[in-house]
Amino acid sequence: MEPGSQTVDEGCRLVYSMDTLTPAERSERMGRVRAKDTKPEMLVRRLVHGMGYRYRLHRRDLPGIPDLVFPSRGKIIFVHGCFWHRHGTCRYTRWPKSKLEFWKPKLEANRRRDQVNQRALRRMGWKVLVVWECQVDDVERLRDRIGAFLEGED
Ligand SMILES: [Zn+2]
């Protein structure tokens, strides 16, 4: 099963099963699915930390609440799930098979919001790098890319 459809299925199962949980179980479950602690992001955070860089997380005062912020360098890294943020022609980005009339406007709005936020950040003088979920498995390549971004002048 591809991650795209898995996400949708899990979402539906989750909503369905929520009513049968105790409040403690429910908040634990919600905590686990909270978007800001997604696995690709944790992986990038560990990698960047291991490279010796320090960063701020999820700064709410910036457009799009960027995942990793490097204030002294004026740089920002977003870690985006391919499905939710519509990663170009990536195979994880394919449209859900059912309820497309529900998902399509939602997902297209996600993509538009990302573009607006990134444009706003660039206008404020920030340099922005987007790391896609499908790119985190190639750690060597990702390390090179992040290093070049954080050390680069432009
Ligand atoms: Zn992708």
Would you mind describing this structure in some detail?
There is one protein chain. The chain is α+β, with helices and mostly antiparallel strands and 154 residues long. The chain has two domains: 1-32, no CATH class; 34-150, VSR Endonuclease (Endonuclease, Chain A). Helix content is 52%, strand content 11%. The protein has a four-stranded mixed sheet, with helices on both faces. Strand 2 (68-70) and strand 3 (75-80) form a beta hairpin. The protein starts with a helix and ends with a helix. 14% of the residues are buried. Mean pLDDT is 81; it is low at 1-19 and 29-34. The structure holds zinc ion (ZN).
Write the layout of secondary structure elements.
Elements: H1 3-18, H2 23-33, H3 39-50, E1 56-57, E2 68-70, E3 75-80, H4 82-85, H5 100-123, E4 127-132, H6 139-151
Parallel strand pairs: 3-4
Antiparallel strand pairs: 1-2, 2-3
The structure holds zinc ion.
Zinc ion is lined by residues 82, 87, 90, 92, 132-134.
